[in-house]
Specification:
Radius of gyration: 16 Å
Strand content: 25-35%
Strand order of the largest sheet: 5-4-3-2-1-6
Structural class: alpha+beta
Number of strands: 6
Shape: globular
Number of helices: 2
Length: 148
């Protein structure tokens, strides 16, 4: 008997992206312009949200830990595309050479999980909830921020 191919649950995925939109807007810098930064202090660690691109209907935001690294753990470093017209936020992973597919066959040469796209956005949800529930924000404008 062949294993059934994984299919993404689209309503569940869209609901996650809508919830992430609401969460990320709570942490966005007050200014919605390119280069705007919000620093969030959580448990002795500093995280930054930086607006990389700004347009009337979308933003590209960088979310990263900017100080101390916990040994054995990778620092959170994500790019998130925010779609204001659809009211969704989705991880746009800068470490992938192409877009993250909704589903992957398993096993695959790159060892992606079957639901890699959903897992990336679920990680964003957890990260945002942690910052909202445990963090303190310090809004400011950084005109000298190096835009990548």
């Amino acid at each position: 008997m062949l294993a059934q191919a994984y299919r993404q649950n689209l309503p569940k995925y869209i609901r996650l992206c809508e919830q992430n939109y609401a969460r990320i807007n709570r942490l966005m810098p007050k200014e919605n312009d390119r280069g705007a930064v919000n620093k969030v202090l959580v448990g002795g660690f500093e995280f930054t949200l930086t607006v990389l691109e700004a347009s009337p209907y979308t933003n590209l935001v960088s979310l990263k830990q900017t100080d101390h690294q916990v040994i054995g753990f990778t620092r959170p470093d994500l790019n998130v595309r925010i779609y204001h017209d659809a009211k969704v936020a989705e991880v746009v992973c800068k470490y992938y050479p192409k877009r993250v597919k909704p589903a992957y066959g398993y096993p695959n040469p790159d060892m992606h999980q079957k639901d890699e796209k959903y897992q990336l956005n679920a990680f964003l949800k957890d990260w945002l909830e942690y910052c909202i529930n445990q963090g303190r924000s310090t809004f400011h404008w950084d005109t000298d921020h190096d835009m990548v």
